What we know:
Elements: H1 2-19, H2 23-30, E1 35-37, E2 42-46, E3 52-54, E4 61-62, E5 75-77, E6 84-85, E7 98-100, E8 107-108, E9 121-123, E10 130-131, E11 144-146, E12 153-154, E13 166-168, H3 174-186, E14 237-240, E15 243-249, E16 254-257, E17 285-286, E18 290-291, E19 304-306, E20 313-314, E21 326-328, E22 335-336, E23 349-351, E24 358-359, H4 368-375, E25 383-386, E26 389-393, E27 399-401, E28 408-409, E29 422-424, E30 431-432, E31 445-446, E32 454-455, E33 467-470, E34 476-478, E35 487-490, E36 496-498, H5 509-514, H6 520-527, E37 532-537, E38 543-546, E39 552-560, H7 564-572, H8 574-580, E40 587-594, E41 609-614, E42 622-629, E43 635-638, E44 640-645, E45 648-655, E46 660-669, E47 675-677, H9 701-712, H10 714-736
Parallel strand pairs: 2-4, 3-5, 4-6, 5-7, 8-10, 9-11, 10-12, 11-13, 18-20, 19-21, 20-22, 21-23, 22-24, 26-28, 27-29, 28-30, 29-31, 30-32, 32-34, 33-35, 34-36, 37-39, 44-47
Antiparallel strand pairs: 1-2, 14-15, 15-16, 17-18, 25-26, 38-41, 39-40, 40-46, 41-45, 42-43, 42-46, 44-45
Helix pairs in contact: 1-10
Amino acid sequence: MRKLKLLGVALIIASLLVASIPASEVAAATAASDFVISSDYTLTKYKGTATDVVIPSSVLKIATDAFKNNTDIVSVTIPDSVKKIEPYAFWGCSNLEVISFGSGINELGDFILANCKGLRSVVVPSNVLSIGIYSFQDDVSLTDITIPYTTRSIHRTAFDGCINLVIHAPAGSYADKYAAEFEKRRQEMPDYGWTPEDVDPETPAVIDGTGETGDGETGPEGSSSEEETPGNDLSSVRIVDNRAVFFIDTDKMKTYGGSEQPEMQDDKSSDAEGAFVSRIPKYRIVDGTTVADNAYYKAEGLSALSVPDGIKSIGQFAYARSSVTSVTIPDGCTEIGYGAFYHCDDLDYAKLPDSILSVEPKAFDHTKWVDNFYAGTIGNGDFLISGGVVIAYRGEAEDLIIPDGVRVIASGVFKDNTNIKSVTFPDTLICVGEEAFYGCSNLSGMNLDENIGWINDRAFRGCPISSVSFPENFAFLGLCAFNDDTELLYAGDEPAATRSTSSERLADQSFRDMAPKADESTLSVLASAESGVIVLPIDEGIQASLEGAKRPYILLADRLVYSEELEDAIRRISDHIESLHLKENLSMFDLNMIDDSGIHISKLGKQALTVMVPIPEGMNDSKPVTLTVDRNGQLEELETDIVKVGDDMFVRFKTYHLTPFAIYSTGDTLGDDEIVISETVTQAMGGRRPVSAGDTAKPGFGDLFKAWIEAMGVMKLVIAGLLFISGSVMVAVKKKR
């Protein structure tokens, strides 16, 4: 009893000692309680009064209004863990002078630092590719901002009201041109139309898909090109690779459904009988910034097309095989996707803006514009150039000189040209596209100017170049950009390794064969495997098979507690969710398929992957639905079956791409006639998942616990724990008496 009493006293003393630790040592821990962090690692609110704020490294996202109108903070440090900052996050922080961004974010979004009148100087890191609507609006004390050449898009309104601002940017970069235009507008500020008080911070700057912006202007869906597009009823259908792709009309938008994209081949017509129709609509214009993949595929009545303002990206096959005769792409657009205007046979003119940074393969193949250039009926020189982008070349020069003013060389422009022996680039060049000089077997000499920042996949593969000297600020080098024996000399830091989406296509096996091999654990699994799919789930039971597999693949199947991609996709169509009876008990998982390169294969083309997942608990008697997210982040429904093998029940679906998936119950009763009885199931290999190139850790229990500890405050928990234990001991002593 005496020992118990002494122990209780000792614990109370320990609690007091912990509580008496100097404030300077406790500050870091107790400050964590000032951050309201949700279970998905979103910082939803800062409640503290500190002047210098360091955001915890557990935070993945900073929510809208998290620091809104906070007049205490003077400086903010954002860690590398933060991947996204939502609009209005720091709105009205009038005394904020310094903000340091981490390497995790790739855009500075709408209104995030608007009305921060004390902000003085900002350095935009190289990982930021775009700056959004009114991002720094009315920051009257902002005198200097440095923007890298890697920033591809800056909204025209980003710095409205910044009457003292000077923009610093590398010569020839997109930001450099923007700076010159901004300087002209700055002379007329602040009389640019309206003041911050006229904006409602609760209203997003762009409302998903509706075509209306927060300032009341008509957005993309209001363009004239929407009026005569096909697919306004369920009888409009295309058969591509023997699968039906439907165009569906809803009350709010004209959309298409279907699980994959058209390949480059003639397709056939058919009726819709017996084909699966998704109940989930899709937007042709996503978030007002992206023309979705296949959005206007084979569309009639487009003729002279003016792509709506605000569009930053044109998706794969977006206008392929359509009736468009000319196209004007707006300023601010940075990317034209794979096959975007493929086989637009009547397209004889295209105007690209100076903001374009990427023109992917086949984007303008088999258009009258390019075909007439090669035939010599249009153009005066050897280069077809629009918006500072080289689209095509018809010359025979041995010593190739790229014209001044060229910023981007599109994908494949000089591919397999055996005449070229040397190439001289202008100081305006920023980016060399995918396979731009691939197979130029006599090209042995080249220079890289100091402003170039990006060379894409296989750009100089097959060129006998002995060595290349990269400028100090060179940032990104694509997969297999040069031969393996080419010596790469860097004046600055070694550039980040990147890869294009082409290498992630199942059909592009040869691209991945060029790449470095995967880690030893992956190779050892594949070494003794036969052609097919080996499933390595975190828990046993998931099965899969790939149509026509000619080599072994590994399917990495992870259960997910949370998926930001799925959540964002569901939120986008929230007004349709009620009719789908979507419940909160989603069973989510992530699928990633790799071969011996270790590169994740995201697009499967014509070869469907059939996946069977043990039916989630509680769904045995109800109809399941499988959801996924397409390449544009839109929710997609897949045709789903219930398969019974012996006593085991599985959810079965086919997919042509790999992203996060979710299974949920509609609530409708499942009839016996709706269950497929099977005697076999695809054999799978269980076991531990290998660590492979490109793997990204998913939040687990340990991460959740860590975030909770940080949010609650470590020292408070320790003190409370010690006091609880000491109190229990004293109670035990009293009872023994």
